[in-house]
Amino acid sequence: MSRTITFNELRQFKDKLPNGSIRKIAEELNMEIETVRNYFGGYNYKEGKSIGVHIEPGPDGGIVVLDDTTIFDKALSILGLEDYPVYKESEEESKVE
């Protein structure tokens, strides 16, 4: 399933990962480290590939469509999250009428 996120949100998400997470994800998925970095907005295509990421210009760094969320899901797991960004319902949204 694909996911849409802004480029700036994707970079903020990557920045929340603990040191060594990119390497860990790469090892678990049997990928080059640079491929995982490229997934999060890097651009080293000599040593890594571009996989399942499409960036369109726009506000907040542009829109990123992640066709394959495997890397993203691994990163969520490392952070102990089920989704990102994690939105909390306001009191009005949580009231059922």
Write the layout of secondary structure elements.
Blueprint: E1 3-6, H1 7-15, H2 21-28, H3 33-39, E2 53-56, E3 63-66, H4 70-79, H5 91-94
Antiparallel strand pairs: 1-3, 2-3
Helix pairs in contact: 2-3
Note down, in words, how this protein is organized.
With 97 residues, this protein is of the alpha+beta class. It has one domain. Helices cover 39% and strands 12% of the residues. Strand 2 and strand 3 (63-66) form a beta hairpin. Helix 2 (21-28) packs across helix 3 (33-39). The protein is globular and about 35 Å long.
Q: Stretches where pLDDT falls below 50 for ≥5 residues? A: 88-94
Number of strands: 3
The biggest beta sheet reads: 3 strands, antiparallel
* Overall helicity: 25-40%
The shape, in one word, is globular
What is the CA-atom radius of gyration, in angstroms?
Answer: 15 Å
Q: Reading side by side through the largest sheet, how are the strands ordered?
A: 1-3-2
State the distance separating the first and last CA atoms: 32 Å
Count of distinct structural domains: 1
Fill in the keyword field for this structure.
97 residues; single chain; alpha+beta; 39% helix; 5 helices; 3-stranded antiparallel beta sheet; globular
Short summary of the structure?
The chain is of the alpha+beta class and 97 residues long. It has five helices and three strands. It has one domain (3-88).
